[in-house]
């Protein structure tokens, strides 16, 4: 740890520790300051033969890295708006972590939901609402990593997980950690004008759908699905997300699904649909390049909530309205999403607060072909499609469904996402797939609002409509959006 002295002025020990005069403390500008005055203690390279040889003893860990050539590279915080604001531009990398200089920890703000849950003023992320065991585990493990990124995570001290989801949960944690590391590196080392990685405006207006794989730079994996993995990447010097298929699993059926998804994405252009930039269509490098977004709605609500000040009432209203506008656009384009869930809603923020929400992942979507007539447009039939926890009763029952029926199934799933936004509860968190088929599929179970949460009556009525057992009675996205455009808050203001 950092060497300190004990002040014993006047012959009597006051017990006050001060930073001593050494190279590390001089580089940090804190010689003589009371110990702890500059925030959390900074971890430094230990005094051992290897570090002495590299000349980095006492420097903050991460600030002096051995390069491939064997020489020592001293890394500094770049001179950019974020680092100037934090007063660390030009200082050794790692010496002034953001958390150490950003003041007190963030707390739940004073809004309707937090007042009803009795958590106003408490540390953000410490009082999550009902969620599944996997999500609870993911939240606790991730927060533990955020607080101590240099320490190994002791899984023994986390809640036990069912064996069948443990491997998947650990993999999701690794993807979240990769994303966090990417964003920290962005803030600390790149001369950027934005505090978080974003796809450039020029690239968002790019209209060349066929890309050369050699022009894409793949970074860390930030997600995974049945199709393959999602990488953080670079294209034309801009940040992107790259959805790449499994190299060894590109069957003819999967190639067709890939082409279908590209065809759907290439026809979509809406501010509330994640922007399609292009695709590589040559095997084995099949991939889709998309706009990079900060995180999923699921992560923001249940896992990484400390990264944002919690959502205001206005944020929640905007989130519902934006995603609903995206869904209306899809349905007008004769596309059924078929897998609406909070993980498939991506959000952006500006480093502090929410800015936009968009729909993503059209790998399971259905679309009417240009050549189909109105009589043949519903000829394709599907069953058991989507994610069980967010599936409509008819999907859980395994009914064969056409495009129009799947659009109404989208509305059921969307109602569950809105419930999640309003209450911060996952739908049916403790039901297995078999239980979902019985309770939701056969008995028409739907979420119940907690006694202390009172959603706007018009919003609540539309949600109940979304969960109607008869799909034809559910509101369309257009019907729902008309209601949302007339209300000013997602909650009833009860005195």
TrEMBL record:
Spell out the SMART domains in the cross-references.
Answer: S_TKc
Region ranges (Disordered): 1-22
Q: In the UniProt record, does the keyword Ribosomal protein occur?
A: no
**Is Kinase one of the keywords UniProt gives this record?**
yes
- Binding-site residues, ATP: 244
Protein's name in the database: Protein kinase domain-containing protein
Listed PROSITE patterns: PROTEIN_KINASE_ATP, PROTEIN_KINASE_DOM, PROTEIN_KINASE_ST
Q: Where is the Protein kinase domain?
A: 216-487
User: Which controlled-vocabulary keywords does the entry list?
Assistant: ATP-binding, Kinase, Nucleotide-binding, Serine/threonine-protein kinase, Transferase
Similarity annotation = Belongs to the protein kinase superfamily.
Single GO MF descriptor: ATP binding
Q: Name one Pfam family in it.
A: Pkinase
